[in-house]
Amino acid sequence: SDEQQSLMQRHKAYWMEVYSEDLQVLELPMDYERPKHRSDRGSVVSFSISEENRTGLERIAKEEESTMYMILLAIYNVFLSKLGNVEDIVVGSPTSGRNHADLEGMVGMFVNTLALRNYPESSKRFNEFLAEVKASALDSFEHELYQYEDLVDALNLVRNMSHNPLFDVMFSYQQAALEGYHIEEESLKITTYNIGHETSKFDLGLTVNRSDEELSFYLNYNTELFTRVTIDRFIIYFKKLINQVVTDRTIMLSSIRLLSKEEEQELHSFNSTEVSYPKGETVLSLFRDQVSRTPESLALVFGEEALSYDELDKRSNQLANYLRFQGVVKGSIVGLMLDRSFELIISILGILKLGGIYLPINPSQPMARTRYMLSDSKAGVLVLDSEASIPYGENLQQINIHSKDIWSATTRGIDQTVLPEDLAYIIYTSGSTGEPKGVMIGHESISNHIGHQRAYFTIDATDRILQFSPIYFDASVEQLWLA
Predict the structure, then answer these.
(1) Predicted TM-score (pTM) of this structure
(2) Residue 279 confidence (pLDDT) above 80
(3) What strands, in cross-sheet order, belong to the sheet with 423-428?
(4) From residue 451, how far is each of 167, 279, 457, 470, 478 by CA, in Å?
């Protein structure tokens, strides 16, 4: 009839309004990767709460003019929000579906599922959030005639075989069916018998049974996503949450803690990655400190040859003085096209001592890429290990690292201030998604990174560090400066 149709339109309009804004997907912390096609393999764990907490929940229900269903739904929302780190939660909840007196005596399945959407935002107090859950639950039940399947169709959701449409978590609350059984025979006693669940249509499903003065909880879970150990931990979190709400129903949601003290400490140790690194230092000043502390110690070993810190310092001074004579100043970009060798390390130190910026280039890469990098970076000088006069670019000065002039230059130190915020090197990307791009790295980034790595790997003077990564890969920076 027209009347029925307009009623359905009203129901539909309500649900379309609830879902007018995009949903956030709830991803719980799972033990296994979500399969591409969701499976129904599941299991269930039963648990109970203390008598004290149960009466505490009853008290809140009474004083907040709410029901046990609404309070547990609100707690479940907060629990899921904390686990999944989202503040927009959709929970499926079954309703009887027998809205008409004529259906009372009819046999059959009339259950509809309501997709209840709530916002457990951390800025709310629990009792405020409970009031919202109560209001939205009452509204939803008022519009329960609109079927879940119709809502999914009407919302035109993009189907994803690894998720259910709208929600992956369920909440079910029922008064135990045993109430009302009156047994005359004293020798006969009826109790519930729990048949093990081997299926789970959802990621998680919480069922609460209420009989007389008791609450029984069942957490149904998908065994392809979670291990039993994780579910047992979830149950501890859930009970802890109930306890905090019962203790103070005006608690801010942001103040609710699920983790134990030990877990909080463990998480803190995972996340506390701050390491004090020498803030005003550069790797250059750290190198100079090392030279003055241990001038005779081994700095570099290559094949059968070795260089002490003092020798490395003097030879890099020679190169720096020679490059300065060739016009290299602070901020100059110098291309480095050398294979792994003493000269490579000496060159890097020499360029940095002038406040220059080194640009590592792969000697065996195509000529076109080399020319592009040199022109794009506006490098004025290229240090290489041959006399080759290959035209790598106009106005580009090519310096052969084996030139006698370099190694007859003065070993006197360079007096150039190099600050943490100055650039140290430029590394080019592969260019697999367009033109290669030069990534500019400052001294501070290197000393920060090295400070962390030195503490993390507990590097000291007894360690030897292998320099095996090509100089045009970022990993080379760590292998070089950790030493």
Answers:
(1) 0.56
(2) no
(3) 397-400, 381-384, 333-337, 357-360, 423-428, 438-442
(4) 46, 10, 10, 22, 10
